[in-house]
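Before our next group meeting I need something from you. Please put the record directly below this note.
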Amino acid sequence: MSYTRRRTTVSWAQLQGQFGSQFADNRFGRARFKQDFERQLAAVLVVYRDANVEATTTGVVLRPSKTHIAPRHTKPELSSYLIVH
């Protein structure tokens, strides 16, 4: 979500299509998927406290958030040290 630039809602149907193929495609399966997804999301939020995400009746709302991993300091590329004549 650190790449999210604006509020984005992902519907429960989209989420189930991506992550919940083992759940039935009926109202009971959708309800069970939503319940399971919300439980898993709560576990993720314990670790990724800066995640700006919210489960709603229509889906999951993603908002811009800080990255969950500190940025790595990268070394300059070798080409930046080469002198071209």
Notes: The radius of gyration is 19 Å.
